[in-house]
Amino acid sequence: MNIHSENNINHLKDSQLLSRLLSYAKPYWRMILLCIMLAFLSVVSDLARPYIMKIAIDGHINGLHKPMAMADALQADRLKREYGETVVWNGKAYARLDPGTTLPEGLGKAQIVRAGGEEWLVPDWLPAQASVEGANILAAAGGNGGVIVDGKTYPAVPLDPAALDAFRKQDYLGFAKLGALFLLAVAGAALLNYYQSNLLQFTGQTIIFNIRQQLFTHLSRMSMSYFDRNPVGRLVVRVTQDTEALNQLYSQVVVNLVKDMIVLIGIIVIMLQMNVKLALLSFAVLPFLAGLTFWYRSVIREAQRVSRVILSRLNSFLAENLSGIRITQLFIREERQREQFDAHNTEYYRAGMRGTVINSIFQPAIGFLGNIAIALLLWYGGASVIDGGITFGIVYAFTHYVRQFFQPLMSLAEKYNQIQTAMVGAERIFETLDEQPAIVDPVKPRHLPERVRGEIAFENVWFAYAGEDWVLKDVSFTILPGQTVAFVGATGAGKSSIIQLINRFYDIQKGSIKLDGVDIRDIPLDELRRYISIVQQDVFLFTGDIASNIRLNNAGITDAEVVQAAKMVHIDEYIRTLPDGYGTLLGERGINLSLGQRQLLSFARAIAFEPQILILDEATSNIDTETELVVQDALNNISAGRTTLIIAHRLSTIQHADQIIVMHKGKVREIGSHYQLLAQRGYYYRLYELQYKEQKPLPKAR
Ligand SMILES: Nc1ncnc2c1ncn2[C@@H]1O[C@H](COP(=O)(O)OP(=O)(O)OP(=O)(O)O)[C@@H](O)[C@H]1O
């Protein structure tokens, strides 16, 4: 597997992932519980709305035609006590009855029915169909004060507008009340949703804030070998995108899923309570729904997994190619790179389309099932209304509940996607967090004094970056306190590796490296690295001004010390010519420095930190010869009394070193001073001769 290919194997089980995810949410359980309670209340007000409509329809719009109890006007109070709203008209009191109420002894029956465009009061109860105008009511039976239903004539009195108003009064009042209640439910749901979603976002953001913080702290402790294996682009995605996917999980999915569950259960309960038969009929589509969801789950999971793997490949390709754009343009590789990008892009497009096609089948299919349920309702419910078995209000409410029932299922696809993305994000985040830094502080640390002598000893050191590819083989040497030691050797001989080992960017496999006689693995990392400053060929500049790039946020370094360090490496003059001097911004929003200027800045950085051990890795390779002489002079000053290690290809710059260590294919080949090594007429001599000839072709060798 190369480092750009994205890991696509599931290591952790979903249940393990979930329990770890929940552990992050645990400190905030009160808020989450409150969110769930708010969600519950908002569901209640959501579900209340069709119910309110049902009451309006059955109780008031069609309320006029309900069967009534009739008594003498003197008994109005009794009627009111027992059956609620009572109308007194023409010496009689009337009260509407709920369906199924049995009429006690002593009370008469009455019902209002619409016939021939007029409302009639009948002192009897009519068959259920009669409440629907026109159904089997032939007409008002001429002028004889009666209505004919199913061939039977009932005596009836026509109601004049004033009487009708009296009977309708409770309906007008009822509409006002129900309207207010409806409004309250809407406003309540809006308010509850507002608080709930804010609280959720707050909780989610806080949890993710903590995870990001933990990730960054963790990453900054990781060893170099980790960064060799993980491209920066991937780690950036870890800290930003993957955590954002988790945020979605906490702030959108979890509570909304709970909310959806409450909605579904709530609707089932309400429907069963309103009418069992109609409810069961609406649920007839559920087995198909379950089958469809099962199919969807299995195909979309695979499609999304493939799509994610391809996307991360595309991202890596893009990141690498944009950072290497200079080389691409220089070697006119644009066309080839474009073809490769095209291949990745096409693959991603296809994967995306596959997901789209699956979704475009699933979502309408769910909608279709929902509509079938509504069609069943219309067919059976409509007929039952006419038969009088079910009220119109119930059918109306049912169609709404069925719609509400299918709504969460329609967005299931989206939620499923979010959960999957979050799970993959969580898995990657936990994998990152679980990876322990290869280089850690010693269990039993040994502390060196504030100032070390600076003796560095390599004793039979064997080192490989990976496996058994030995980069250093049995390397031994001792650098005495205050000495300046140079490493020379061909490219790839292992010089830079030696330097990376001294400050423990990597740990060795065999032998030991000692500072003042103490194995560096026994010294706390912070302390070890505080003694050492390294100036490298590639200088990294942080976004910020020049002064902050020299002192690297170390408040202990004063402005005067910054200037002093810059003066020592002769970059002070240049800095002063810049518009803002030491306050000039570098990087993206500021100016760009030349490679040589960057190296000088990095020298100043090393000097300002006053290290006790100074390491220069090809540090003067980009500085012109004239400036190098000056810097060399400054270096001589700085290295006086300090252990200094220098890697240089230009042998002229290291002739004054106390010791020169010649490396060859991972081994120490020769050690000695310049003159000793020349006298040996070995590898160093040959190197020197080669360079000497190159640089000064005219005079003959001494
Ligand atoms: N981060 C790394 N991961 C794996 N192998 C590495 C790494 N860095 C260097 N190497 C390998 O280690 C060997 C020695 O590299 P090193 O950089 O120490 O050589 P060097 O003598 O400093 O060369 P140069 O003069 O070119 O800087 C090389 O063969 C290189 O391929």
From TrEMBL:
Protein's cellular compartments: Cell membrane
Stretches assigned to the ABC transporter domain: 456-690
Top-level taxon of origin: Bacteria
Keyword Transmembrane: yes
Domain ABC transmembrane type-1 as annotated: residue spans: 33-421
Protein name per UniProt: ABC transporter ATP-binding protein
Transmembrane segments: 28-48, 175-195, 249-271, 278-296
GO MF: ATP binding
